[in-house]
């Protein structure tokens, strides 16, 4: 992909900012821009968003402008104040607690006393210091669970920012009845230059620390890990407090220029090798180089039960390689992160790619002709990677099919289908 022509001089280090970008900045030659040069600009937008979301936060979730990203790993970051889907779509279609207020925990989690943890370590929280709950052990669309190298289930969460949360609550889209009364297509607020309103949703994936996982190499937090009996038959409810490490980070960001949303996906650098490329590391988060007869990118056999003490690890490979341009951009941001905070844990995360609509106003294609055509996070779409239309992972194409419980368009999110 195209990159800025600076002769033989190395490109300038990217600026790190707590400001979430409102739109891409077209800076890459040539003029007019090409598909490749725009891809680079969207990838810069993704990194800017990732940095801003992972900026140290104040108690109300706003960015702490007196600090920089990675400066204090025991403090919360901006996105950790966002609301989990579990706390928005409640049993019976009940109205969720107001933004910033404590949300109910599963009964098994109520028994855990988090007060005795070291100060500042319980960071996956609402403003009211209620610990978030990782209660999803299967990947989206029921393609199967992901098993880490310790034989444990990876865990997942989906969160929304306040603008998205307010839209759901104000229009009563948190319940089937509310959606029926709303009786219209959803239209979440896009980012505008003159407004702080911007719908952002985040998917994260986590592994429990310990065993083959060194906490110093991950962005970690303490979370309540809940085995949810509603997920799979035979699962017994259980809740334990665990230190977990971030392995996948997926951002959907609606802007005024991109109503199909901009989709950015990041992973831990040690997650997996790439198909047909050298296996360059002795250990990976989701790949065992010593296993020569392991099936690749295949979900574990049923029954699926996260309560099992051990499950055969999933052998995962990346199907679509990260581009040379994205790798170069990753290196530039890693250099900037290390310059800001030597040894910053955020150097262990890399952009896989960004999917965006190349023709957002297309009258014949509601997906806006996405580029690249396919995008997958190996921890979130492990089993649907590839290049097959209508089958392989494509954020925009897939989410274009999302509807509310009443069949109305849900504006590129499946969250509204969770309403009861």
TrEMBL record:
Protein origin, superkingdom: Bacteria
Residue stretches of biased makeup (Low complexity): 19-28
Region (Disordered), start-end ranges: 1-32
Protein name: Cytochrome c family protein
Source organism of this protein record: Dyella mobilis
